[in-house]
Every structure is written in C-alpha cells, then in structure tokens.
Amino acid sequence: MSDSAWGQIEAYIKEIENTECSDNDALEQFRIRFLGSKNILKSLFGEIKNIENDRKKEYGQKVNELKALAESKYSSCKSDLQSSEREGAKSSMDFSLPSAPFQQGSRHPVSIVMNRIIDIFEKIGFVVSEEREIEDDWHNFTAMNTPEDHPARDMQDTFYLKNSVTNLLRTHTSSVQSRVMTSQQPPIRIIAPGRVYRNETISARSHCQFHQVEGLFIDKDVSFADMKQTLLYFAREMYGPDTKIRLRPSYFPFTEPSAEMDVYWGLKDEIDYRITKGTGWLEILGCGMVDPNVLINCNIDPEVYTGFAFGMGIERQAMLKYNISDIRLLFENDVRFLKQFSSVI
Ligand code: DAH
C-alpha cells in the first residue's frame, strides 16, 4: 500500500503539471478534485500511518508539496483565464458607437456678469480685493461714517451673529473699503466683488443675499470728473459704445457729494416702460467722492488725498441682461435654469 501511495503522488504531480484549464468549468473541476472539501489529497494524508517510520517525514513533505503545487496551479490558471476574458471583452468593443452624452457644466449668470465687470475695471488698472463676509460693526458701519445712532443704519437691515453685538454678515461690499484703507496707504485702486446679506423678505424682486461689486480709487487730486469719466467708460463697455449715462444727486453716509448713476435703456417696448418706470432711464449704481470722515477714520489724510467710490448690485444687471423676471431663480441652483447659460462664457 505504501509503495502505491508514493506512486500515486508522482501520478498526481504529472496530472497537475499537464492540466490546462481551458475554461471556468475545467478550472472548477480542478479545484474540486485537488482543493475541495473532499479532495483526493486527503486520502494520501491518511496513508501516512502505513508508511515506514523512518520515511514518514519525507512522505509528509511530499504530500504537502503536492498540495502547494495544486494551489499554485489553480491560482495561475485562474489569473490566465481572467486576463483572457478581459482581452475578449476588449476585442468585442465597438469603437464606432457614439460616446455616452457628457454633461457639461456652465457658469452661473451672476458669475458671468461679475467677471465681465471685473474685466472692464482691470483693463484700467483696478485690482481685485476680496474680503470676509462675516464683518464687524466698525468696518461695515462705523468706519464708513455710519455710527450706531445714525439713521442710515435703518437703510440696511442687518443680520447680527448669534450672541454677538459686533459681528454681522456684511450688508454691503463697502466694508472692503475700510479693510483696504486701514491696511494700505494711497494710491489705492481696487475693485471688490462679493456676496452681501440683508434681513429682507424674499420676493421676486428682493432677496436676503445678493452680490455687489465695489470700487475705490484714492490718490492725490482725484476729482468728481475722474469718477464720471471712469463710470462712463464702464457703462459703454458694459452696455454698448453709444450708452448714455446721467448722475442724479443722492445720499450715502460714506460719500460727499453722493450720486446715483442711471444708464439710458430706451423705451422700445412695453417691458422697457415697465422696468424704467416710463422714463427710459435705469439706475445701476451708487457713487460719490469718499467722505473726508471716512478717510480720517482709516488714517488717511484728507488734506493730501481725495478719492471716489462706487457700488453696484449684480443680480439686477444679470436679470436685465438675461431677461430673468424672478431673483429667486438665481439662488435655487436648478440645473434646468442654469444650463440655459452654457453657451455664454
Ligand atoms: N454700499 C451702498 C449700498 O449697498 C452702495 C454704494 C453707494 C457704494 C455709494 C459706494 C458708494 O461705494 O460710493 O447701497
């Protein structure tokens, strides 16, 4: 019996070496025969009791080697089969089929308009300055010549942060003016785009969050005429070379004198009558000469320097440009709305 056990081992070694697993069924048959729970090697291990004592060790090693051989054959056959399956899948690909549709993203209309405004001012030397949305009372109001008891604070309903009387969500990008003026001396020529917040009831025409672009120019001998020329250049770049503007006197605490700028929109159709309230003129920004008090608050000498500032809302301009009738659409992120802007950059 023991002689036949030695012979059997040799026979199995040959069988394993000659095995070629041509498919998954053959591989599974091999596994069951040599490695399954009732595999044929088990009976060889059982034979060990019939082996002469001085050869038991050698026999045991031989059977273990046989088992290791079966295992390595199994795993190499398996990986051969898997890679030939992959090859097969490749060759059955049809390269002439159209590709799966690719969903291309698009810029948000507010970003499109904001980037356009930034481009226009960068061309004449303004530098983008971005600042925090959580501001303190001083930079948002006090430094901007709007002390605590000032009635102008009522113009902008403010979100204060919980448990804080000084920290708030900035109500306008004018807060960037005080940040910049307290950290650098003139000449200053910045443009500050960003999001602002006001505690307002949400409707088709107003929202509690929106975007503004602020401009600030301070140097020696800056005049109201410089401001007017800069804003005329902007209006013509933005709305076309024949655009007309007008400056109406207005009031802002941080500028003196202050103005609002209108562009002539025209009265071509009914909609023009509605959006311009029958005048043909459309207000797009607030502006003015920086109030000397603001310069003093920010440690800039008003005897040496003068400057102008302006601030404009973005949503309204995006709504006019793209004929959007409800501001809420700009904040809902509905792809059906947003993808309409995919062809504009
Ligand atoms: N901060 C003003 C607002 O939010 C807009 C504004 C008006 C900004 C006049 C200015 C300015 O810089 O000079 O209503």
Total number of beta strands: 9
Bound molecules: 3,4-dihydroxyphenylalanine
- Globular, elongated, flat, extended or rod-shaped: what is the shape? elongated
Mean pLDDT: 91
Number of domains: 2
Separation of the first and last Cα atoms? 87 Å
CATH architecture of the largest domain: 2-Layer Sandwich
Largest sheet: 7 strands, mixed
Helix content: 40-55%
CATH class of the largest domain: Alpha Beta
CATH topology of the largest domain: BirA Bifunctional Protein, domain 2
> Which structural category do the helix and sheet elements fall into?
alpha+beta
Number of helices: 12
Poorly predicted runs are none
Order of helices and strands: HHHHHEEHEHEEHEEHEHEHH
Percent of sequence in beta strands: 15-25%
Rg over CA atoms = 40 Å
Q: In the CATH hierarchy, what is the superfamily of the largest domain?
A: Bira Bifunctional Protein, Domain 2
- Give, in spatial order, the strands making up the sheet with the most strands: 1-4-5-9-8-7-6
